Amino acid sequence: MSSSQDLSFHQLLPLTIFQQLGQLLQQMAQELGNEALIVTEEALVSIPTRPEATDLFTLVVSQQFSALLVAERRQETGDRRQQEELTLKESIILNSVNSELGTEAYVTLQERNSELLNVKLTFEPAAIAQFLQHLNGCLEDNSLARATLARYSQVIQPNNATLQGKFTLMLLSVLAPSSHQNDAQESIYPFVSVCQPVEEALHQQIAHERLLNQVTTQIRQSLELPIIISNVVERVREFLQVDRLVVYQFEQQESAIGEQLPVIREQGIFNSEFRQPKAKRSVIPNSEFSTHGCVIYEARASASIDSVLNYREENCFIPASGCWEKYRQGFTLAIADVDKAYVLSSCLLAFLQKIQVRAKLIAPIVFQQQLWGLLIAHQCYEPRSWQENEKNLLRRIAEQLAIAIYQEELMRSLKLEKQTLEQRVIERTQALHDALLAAQAASRAKSEFLATMSHELRTPLTSVIGMSSTLLRWPSGEMSQRQRQFLQTIHDSGEHLLALINDILELTQFESGKAVLNLSEFALAQLAEASLRSLSDRATRQAVNIMLDLKISPDYRLFADPQRVSQILWNLLSNAIKFTPEGGEAILRIWSENDFAVIQVEDTGIGIAEEHLPLIFEKFQQLDSPYQRHYDGTGLGLALTKQLVELHQGRIEVESTLGKGSIFTVWLPNNREQ
Question: Which parts of the sequence belong to the Histidine kinase domain (predicted)?
Answer without folding.
Answer: 452-672
